[in-house]
Amino acid sequence: MKVTVWNENQHEKSLPKVTELYPGGIHEYIAGFLKADDVEVRTATLDDPECGLTDEVLADTDVLVWWGHMAHDKVPDEVVERVFKYVMSGMGFVALHSAHHSKIFRKLMGTTGNLKWRDGARERIWCIKPNHPIAEGVPETFALEEEEMYGEPFDIADPQEVIFIGWFNGGEVFRSGCTWVKGHGRVFYFQPGHETNPSFRNENVQKIIKNGVKWACPVRKNIVLDCPHVAPLENIEE
Amino acid sequence: MKVTVWNENQHEKSLPKVTELYPGGIHEYIAGFLKADDVEVRTATLDDPECGLTDEVLADTDVLVWWGHMAHDKVPDEVVERVFKYVMSGMGFVALHSAHHSKIFRKLMGTTGNLKWRDGARERIWCIKPNHPIAEGVPETFALEEEEMYGEPFDIADPQEVIFIGWFNGGEVFRSGCTWVKGHGRVFYFQPGHETNPSFRNENVQKIIKNGVKWACPVRKNIVLDCPHVAPLENIEE
Amino acid sequence: MKVTVWNENQHEKSLPKVTELYPGGIHEYIAGFLKADDVEVRTATLDDPECGLTDEVLADTDVLVWWGHMAHDKVPDEVVERVFKYVMSGMGFVALHSAHHSKIFRKLMGTTGNLKWRDGARERIWCIKPNHPIAEGVPETFALEEEEMYGEPFDIADPQEVIFIGWFNGGEVFRSGCTWVKGHGRVFYFQPGHETNPSFRNENVQKIIKNGVKWACPVRKNIVLDCPHVAPLENIEE
Amino acid sequence: MKVTVWNENQHEKSLPKVTELYPGGIHEYIAGFLKADDVEVRTATLDDPECGLTDEVLADTDVLVWWGHMAHDKVPDEVVERVFKYVMSGMGFVALHSAHHSKIFRKLMGTTGNLKWRDGARERIWCIKPNHPIAEGVPETFALEEEEMYGEPFDIADPQEVIFIGWFNGGEVFRSGCTWVKGHGRVFYFQPGHETNPSFRNENVQKIIKNGVKWACPVRKNIVLDCPHVAPLENIEE
């Protein structure tokens, strides 16, 4: 399996806390825990030419992981269209945390991606589908002492499955882990991962992202997208 | 629209608090707020012959509302089969609170209906689908100072829509308002309504139940259930 | 209820058969059968300034019906964004036939809208959810002697409900009637309606479109779209 | 992975054609093509004590495959309850063809399982989700020259995913391959497989059943089913 981890890599330049938590940036940290004998991982960022997401890279990517927050609008539309095309063609897509407002996630959802938010909450995550492949090895519930609150209503397409629901100490709830199939691509959204919180260091968060990447891996890739005129297959007497 | 409100009516005999809150029993109280110029409501209880759910009554019912808790097993299997048949044929079904473990709800779900529970919680309900007919006039969020906690994982069939999610002060979450289509019948489950809590007196709870009953009302009723051998409709040359 | 019927109105200028079937154009014909005592209908076309879809018109529209085919690309992106915003805010949207490839439908789906196609087929439509409000009064099956074949795989977001499946005499099948909720808006797609076939004159097709418009009508409209920073609602001791 | 193939094994006694097609019976034939280095397969039939489905067997089964037709009622209710319990606890379940009317499938669906039927049709199967694991290696469409027609409306719970739709030469359509999650168990229904037709000898049908079994294999098994009273997890100041 070949994974590309994309990070806008902007907070890393101004907030020391981010690189303290995640040396090398969020992308390198995530790449680090995703790497395995059968998982090859590359990274790409906003500062790379074409955001590092050329046709060559995407055609060779099984699953694209996306983290972005303050610079969604800096991602050129043609890069968004290209990523969209590859998801339609079968590439898996895992959107993390503030990627809910990225151009590509909103385009895949066909919705605004809006939600409620507040820094500095305590979150408790519940696994409501313990037998889903993305929940493998994950406990029924676990807490994140410090996470950004994301609250409902969350404006997303109806998920195929809601696997995790988040509880926040300010009284909010959130569909924290959801799946969709869009075109030929499998899409997973997972909510924790604010840049100044240690969520990506949490063992359960890491398991869920690893499982999500594995789940999103296509059984076919680079499927031709067309809208063909076709001849009849059956000889029907009219 | 013709509605039948069924209540096992057992707690009413032993817990004075129930009839203080709901004079005449939970069934009479719910019937009271459902009645309207275009809504005819009758009630039925466990103590009635055949639980008050004869073929005559069910054939004349658009939507059946169900409350039960301590006496699920006392409902005879033939009554359960009969109610099931009418739901399959188009009758709407609204299951309230502890009806999650009733024979008929479990039969409709094809699951155990299991959940976590604890008396004496504070609940906050979030409406995550504000434009759903069942959410008409309901605020984005409202609190119930005293309700029984029902917590995930809730073992139900995947809902068609989750309209309400509950937050509890002990750290739990719950899919508190869900819809399904089963056979030809529309089914709505709503979680609040513990017998010793005043939830059915809450204005928003009443609105939701009224909306749910209206939503579950069939466009066709008493649809024939069969598995017919049929002739071809098209003349296909083989 | 206020309905706006949008038609690109281009085939009407070059193919006499279209205006023979649908005098005044497809939009006027559809508007004609939608009009009722409690349904006010206006029309709009590609040739109108801003496609006839100004903020003033959309803010005053409960449900927008869309027919387009040869000129999808002529609809300006800002009009598409505007319509999208109103669907997100609660406006219903009914997409007919070749609208599957319109910019707005593809944007709402988050997919390509691709399918297979061929002119001149015989279609048989099956109602698989006879108790859905959109199926009210519609028979279990009916035939269209002449329709364009649209075949699977149809690249759409997973529907909330598939209400109609089409059978074609060349061996194809199609999810011909599907619903979604996108943002706060309810969306219905219905497949028949090729410009040179008399499908919109068919009594069942008319019933389905009328029912679809009624189903898509919002219970709330012009809902504010935002992503607010919010204060806690509950006083949680940490 | 450990698979148990259950077959009522009754037609095999009276219709020579069945054992000509499937020597040893349908169960042995299916077991034959499911066996692999990492897949251990046992069989069980109606004539075995307790239908061959004891606690010992089920506790040691990852996925149960079910074929039944003329003797659904002969399966004792306690066996049905036991199989149900194991599906709720995580065991996968693959229902083939006429299993649509088996007690256990109807119990899992919470519906009647009704459909239309006719012997001796030509079927064409369309794969509408080519990137689903159950569709791995399966072509977009393939024909079965001889199969029993099963037609919509098919009274099932709303599927999580419809992967295959069938076209029949008499004008019918059918949701031929569907998935659900019920309790902790993953359920797949696949329509071809009439006892006197050679469908189980078809390479694509075999691929789909193999893929379906693999998909239904649980990530956890024998999960405890309970409805526990629980203490609060969070210290909430009221």
What do these coordinates show?
The structure is a homotetramer of 238-residue chains. Chain A is an alpha/beta fold. Chain A has a domain at 2-110 and 177-216: 3-Layer(aba) Sandwich (Rossmann fold), CATH 3.40.50.880. The first copy, chain A, is built from 7 helices and 9 strands, in the order βαααβαβαβαβββββα. The first copy, chain A, has helices at residues 11-14, 16-21, 26-34, 55-59, 77-88, 103-109, 203-216, and strands spanning 2-7, 40-45, 63-67, 92-96, 116-127, 141-151, 161-168, 173-182, 185-190. The first copy, chain A, has a 9-stranded mixed beta sheet with strand order 2-1-3-4-9-8-7-5-6. In chain A, strand 8 and strand 9 (185-190) form a beta hairpin. In chain A, helix 5 packs across helix 6 (103-109). The model of chain A has no long low-confidence stretch (mean pLDDT 96). The A-C interface holds A 88, 101, 107-118, 121-122, 151, 155, 157-158, 160, 169-172, 180-183, 225-234, 236, 238 and C 88, 101, 107-118, 121-122, 151, 155, 157-158, 160, 169-172, 180-183, 225-234, 236, 238.
